[in-house]
Amino acid sequence: MQPLDYLKETPSQTAGPFVHIGLTPNKLGIGGVYPQDLGDSPIREEAKGQQITIVGTVRDGAGMILRDALIESWQADAAGIYPGNDPRGAADPNVGGWARIIADFDTGEWVLKTIKPGAVPYPDGRMMAPHISLWIVARGINLGLQTRVHFEDEDNSACPVLGRIEHRDRVQTLIAKKTGPDNYRFDIVLQGENETVFFDI
Amino acid sequence: MTANSEGDRDPLFFRDRDWHPAAYTPGYKTSMTRAPFRPLVALGSTLSEETGPAFGQSMIGALDNNLILNFTGQPAIGERIILHGRVLDETGRGVPNVLVEIWQANAGGRYRHKKDGYLAPLDPNFGGCGRTLTGPDGSYEFLTVRPGAYPWPNRVNDWRPMHVHLSVFGSGFGQRLITQMYFEGDPLIARCPIVRTIGQEKAIEALVAPLDMNRAIPMDCLAYKFDVVLRGRRQSLFENRREGM
Ligand SMILES: [Fe+2]
């Protein structure tokens, strides 16, 4: 038999407790190496669409709020086009789409100021409801966790990804609650009651 | 940000989760309360994972990949090493223009972090972070000092082997990866509960960088080689084509 000559993906290891040294050194007080941390905002001021603020926490199975969580977000522009390599065309030039968000070192709360993304097609052409993809790392997380933020005030009923969640009561863990005209709350639970849905994508 | 090239948008290879560490690994105590207990929801990649952020050379400073000099301009103390390798995907292709970020303890095993109270002193000239973009063939290179081993609160006497943390982007958000590289011959590797979160011996070997005398610089520094492999992309004429492709 011929060998399949694929390489294996490099195995993941935890980001550990000192991930901020590498990814957001300025926020940790390590100044002078980089002029600024990457991913401070996914948009410029002039970005088209509804400007929104999402606030949340990351909680563990013992109910403790993580102070060391680091989250990256990736999203489309208001028309549902991804910046960079979207095959359907160019995105709003004022949308970078990517952000690096850290839990507050004292309270554990994280904040994402962005614009609400448009719907994006699933591979079969059906539309996925507007969402922001999150990737979560921290001490004790051996492989980055993938989840999505959906919005309470959007029609999520026909989203093919949400439709794949067998236990329907868990869908609500992916829906940000509206707390103001442009404000949402999205609390992530790593383990236990109300555990957030994480994807194997 | 810069545009990725065509073809950098095909579906991703499925992740082999038996190769990666499990989420719940009691030998590494912190994982016990931070591991999801419910099964992951299986989903093939979508546009949301096949696209991803891109970074341009203009964001990278001249000393960003030189951890010996990038904190104060005065040299850090320690064993000088080149850390180099390529970022590849599972099909063996080099992945160009992607961001590689590293962080590490200083030569004594101490991090520049308020939560690190280890006895070993800070080096006033060592910050502990670096970054670079891969070249056209996926290659990257850092100049740094070899980090020291250090003790950590887990079991009574657990020590981390010498290691460098790496964060790597691909061309799709679903390829995002953080890992750690270890050094050939370190007897602490086999004893480390974080290393042992990985079940397969061959997978652990993939995290150990060999000494590379061909890249050492005489009378200056040693070198270690560490390749990083990201998820591949599936190309087939028979794959359902999306609208607009
Ligand atoms: Fe470390």
Give the H and E element order of chain B.
Answer: HEHEEEEEEEEHEEE
Distance, first to last CA of chain A: 30 Å
Termini Cα gap of chain B = 23 Å
SS elements, strand count of chain A: 13
Mean pLDDT metric of chain B = 94
Q: Largest beta sheet of chain B, briefly?
A: 5 strands, mixed
Oligomer: heterodimer
CATH topology category name of chain A: Protocatechuate 3,4-Dioxygenase, subunit A
- Gross morphology of chain B: globular
Number of helices of chain A: 2
Tell me the domain tally of chain B: 1
CATH class of chain B, named Mainly Beta
The main sheet of chain A comes to: 8 strands, mixed
Q: Per CATH, what is the topology of chain B?
A: Protocatechuate 3,4-Dioxygenase, subunit A
Mean of residue pLDDT values of chain A: 97
Which strand order do you get reading across the main beta sheet of chain B? 4-3-8-9-10
One letter per element, helices H and strands E, the order of chain A comes to HHEEEEEEEEEEEEE
* Structural class by SSE content of chain B: mainly beta
Q: What's the CATH architecture name of chain B?
A: Sandwich
Written account of the structure:
Chain A: Residues 45-192 form the Intradiol ring-cleavage dioxygenases domain. Chain A: InterPro entries: Intradiol_dOase_C, Intradiol_dOase_core, Intradiol_RC_Dioxygenase, Protocat_dOase_a. The complex is a heterodimer of chains A (201) and B (245). By secondary structure, chain A is mostly beta strands. Chain A has one domain (43-189): Protocatechuate 3,4-Dioxygenase, subunit A (Sandwich), CATH 2.60.130.10. Chain A is 4% helix and 27% strand. Chain A is built from two helices and 13 strands, in the order ααβββββββββββββ. In chain A, the strands form three sheets. Chain A has an eight-stranded mixed beta sheet. Chain A has a two-stranded parallel ribbon with strand order 2-12. In chain A, strands 6-7 form a two-stranded antiparallel sheet. In chain A, strand 6 (120-121) and strand 7 form a beta hairpin. The longest helix of chain A has 5 residues, at 19-23. The radius of gyration of chain A is 18 Å and the shape is globular. Chain A starts with 18 loop residues before the first helix and ends with a strand. The model of chain B has no long low-confidence stretch (mean pLDDT 94). Helices cover 5% and strands 23% of the residues of chain B. Chain B has a single domain (59-230), classed as Sandwich (Protocatechuate 3,4-Dioxygenase, subunit A). Chain B has helices spanning 31-34, 47-50, 201-205; strands spanning 41-42, 80-89, 99-103, 129-133, 139-145, 150-152, 158-160, 163-168, 177-183, 208-209, 222-225, 228-230. In chain B, the strands form three sheets. Chain B has a five-stranded mixed beta sheet, with no helix packed on it. In chain B, strands 2, 5, 11 and 12 form a four-stranded mixed beta sheet that branches. With 245 residues, chain B is mainly beta. Chain B starts with 30 loop residues before the first helix and ends in a 15-residue tail after the last strand. Chain B is built from three helices and twelve strands; from the N terminus they run αβαββββββββαβββ. The relative contact order of chain B is 0.22. At the A-B interface, helix 1, strand 6, strand 8, strand 9 and strand 13 of A face helix 1, strand 1, helix 2, strand 3 and strand 8 of B. Strand 13 (199-200) of chain A pairs parallel with strand 1 of chain B. The structure holds fe (ii) ion. The site of fe (ii) ion has 3 residues of chain B, from strand 8. Fe (ii) ion binds at residues 160, 163, 165 of chain B.
